[in-house]
Amino acid sequence: MRPEILNPLFRPVASLPGIGPRLETTITRLLVGAEAPGPARVVDLLLHLPSGLIDRRRQPGIALAPEGAIVTLKVRIDRHRPAPPGNSRAPARVYAHDDTGEIALVFFHGNKTWLERAMPIGETRYVSGRVEWFNGAPQMVHPDHIVDEAGFADLPLVEPVYPLTAGLSGKVLGKAVRAALDAVPELPEWIDSGVVARHRFPAFRAALGAMHTPANVADAAPDGPAASRLAYDELLAGQLALALVRAKLRKPRGKVRTSAGKLKAKILAALPFSLTNSQTAAIADIEADLAKPERMLRLLQGDVGSGKTVVALAAMADAIESGGQAAFMAPTELLARQHMRTIAPLAEAAGLEVALLVGRDRAAARQAALAELESGAIDIVVGTHAVFQEGVEFKDLALAVIDEQHRFGVHQRLALASKGPEADVLVMTATPIPRTLVLTYFGDMDVSRLTEKPAGRRPIDTRAVPLDRIGEVAERIAAATRDGAKAYWVCPLVEESESTDLAAADARAADLSRILGDQVGLVHGRMKSADKDAEMRRFQSGETRVLVATTVIEVGVDVPDATIMVIEHAERFGLAQLHQLRGRVGRSDRPSTCLLLYKAPLGATAHARLQVMRDTEDGFVIAEEDLRLRGEGEVLGTRQSGMPGFRVARPEFHGALLESARDEARLMLARDPDLTGPRAEALRMLLYLFGRDDAIRLLRAG
Ligand code: ADP
Ligand code: MG
To answer: What CATH code is assigned to 460-616?
Structure first.
């Protein structure tokens, strides 16, 4: 049960003044995503930290205001230009100037009387908001504040700026956050007092106050004590949850599983290639783990195309030969089906029974598969989350392989544990997470790394091409496909609307069809998975030769004879994503090309990202650069999302706190494994606040 003192923080945001049901929906989408089980809560709002600050002591003047920056301007109002009659979409404009230049203040659906009263001609006003350039002139759309001298004196000198979304103004959000702050009770300290003293951490409540109502810029700095405190809290909650899971997963000891490796030998013999050294080493690591009495928790880290699937298959063969069953879990149905296609023929060569289990199986087929799993007739089940669900019983689950794990959370690991209380776990990730971060995502796992690309692979020729040469590119692709090549064409994700994405991909497919006829396929996230699957198969078989896609192909898709990757609006993608996408090609001994189509002019960070892509294919180097550039992005005022799954902690500022949080979590559990001692109550609160309370269930389960 959640400690009662936290209740005010777990009320829906609509309980705050000024937030109605409509705003609640918007805030929920912004803070916890549209798929969240319930509305955003007060605590979500509190942990939605400012992405920047307005410092009203800095008033650059119109001409010097950086594009896209939020600034305060002291201006004289010159003239009003109301919206043209009959065109309700056109905005009203109010022109104003200062010593450095002129600016248009823009108001959609602006009420004439209100505008004239708020900004009388000839008077001085302070306006605060984002400066944009439109048709070569600076403008500010819907300033956050329009005040006179007296009003300016009342404004806070430093005001937080929040990452926003359509339909939600900074003003409304700010007000809601301040109301949320009033709801925060004084809570007992959960962090070790030595750690608090060493880092000069303020208390939880004070830290939230400093972030949301800073008295000066330093208060809310991302590497300052308040932000660091909250980041530490989040990291500690994460590490504590991981440590709890690990302790409980390890407690029921694993089984000693040994095999003569006969099945594995059959599978390896059926491969058309020989293993790389690091594949062989990883298989040996796993074999040793299986034979140990403890449960295996191993992370197999290997860049895209490094051949993780084969390693997993070899491990599964060993597990099965020792008498058990194996499960192979992928994050999406598309990938599950693809793994199925790879695994099925090889498994057959070794005489193994494989079944596919995904969300939308027909009931009869599903029932049959479930029965065979339970009887042990099926050796390997390949599937999605569906495998974790209730009603799925194994005769003896010996090994669970989880692909692209960072999309699965702690609770899935728990669900998994219940399927096979002694099962060894192999987690595979293609995300080249830097060593410093492995801990954050995976906790204390043993790590095997695939460091070589399979022999015969050629480097990918990567080029950046401005978008206005898209016609040329399309012609080149057409020519190449006539010579037998296959190409992916990725259309970008536009954040505002999934339907716009779709339109872009749709339109692109139509364009290309005009050149290439019916050789063009299209896959996107909104398609039914059966259709997606059919489309992938058509591409695989060569029926289609160009596959237009939204980023659904990002993870794990394997069509070795595809050698061209076109990424449209490459400047909108992050480095990790670009790397993942590019990794779809360069999977055979044929030379591959990656064309990064960008819209000029490129910003500094986007330019640097594309440069990195041209310079290297080494995923680990790219990951390090990614971190570094994110740090710079911050300086440029464009915060990108930090660590996936974390709201507060950011690797570039708080990475160093991680080890300390891990040590504290371990020490705590070593002293008090069931969290019953005096500080435990506080730590439980922490787990609730940061949404890690599913780990608490473990404590109860004992
Ligand atoms: P990933 O690590 O990205 O999951 P895959 O397991 O999908 O990589 O392997 C990528 C491709 O490389 C597959 O077509 C696979 O058959 C092939 N492959 C794997 N290992 C080797 C190897 N040692 N030599 C040549 N090709 C290999
Ligand atoms: Mg893979």
So the answer is: 3.40.50.300
